[in-house]
Design brief:
130 residues, Helix Hairpins, 0% strand
Length: 130
């Protein structure tokens, strides 16, 4: 506990504007460096366009927004873990590999969940077009 107090005393508190700037920097880095994040952003844009085209309800917009956010958040967490794994002094370790695999699995599960939500929301509308 004493160590935590000493660390907290030496760590200057960040302003809200600094926190938001850091978060935006992290988001921009993910967009620039992660092709899978870009793919997820394109898919999110397609979902938003389809939602507007099919005039989905407010409740359906909430589901779609949550699904998009879930996938993008999972991808950001995965990217953060990958960045730590490639940090200075990092070496190959089975636990590190396992952690990265689990983070990738989280992205996969989020994407599958989002796809299922898309099928629930858009499936009946697409079937009606046939």
């Amino acid at each position: 506990m004493a160590l935590q107090r000493r660390i907290a005393a030496r760590t200057p508190s960040r302003t809200w504007s600094r926190k938001f700037a850091d978060a935006c920097r992290g988001l921009a880095r993910a967009v620039r460096t992660q092709t899978s994040f870009g793919v997820h952003l394109l898919a999110a844009g397609a979902v938003v366009a389809a939602g507007a085209l099919f005039r989905v309800s407010a409740g359906e917009w909430c589901l779609l927004t949550l699904a998009i956010g879930l996938v993008l958040m999972a991808e950001i967490f995965n990217t953060a873990l990958e960045s730590l794994a490639r940090g200075p002094g990092s070496r190959r370790h089975p636990r590190l590999r396992d952690a990265l695999d689990m983070a990738s699995a989280a992205v996969l599960l989020a994407a599958i969940t989002a796809a299922l939500i898309g099928v629930i929301v858009f499936g009946p509308r697409l079937v009606a077009l046939l």
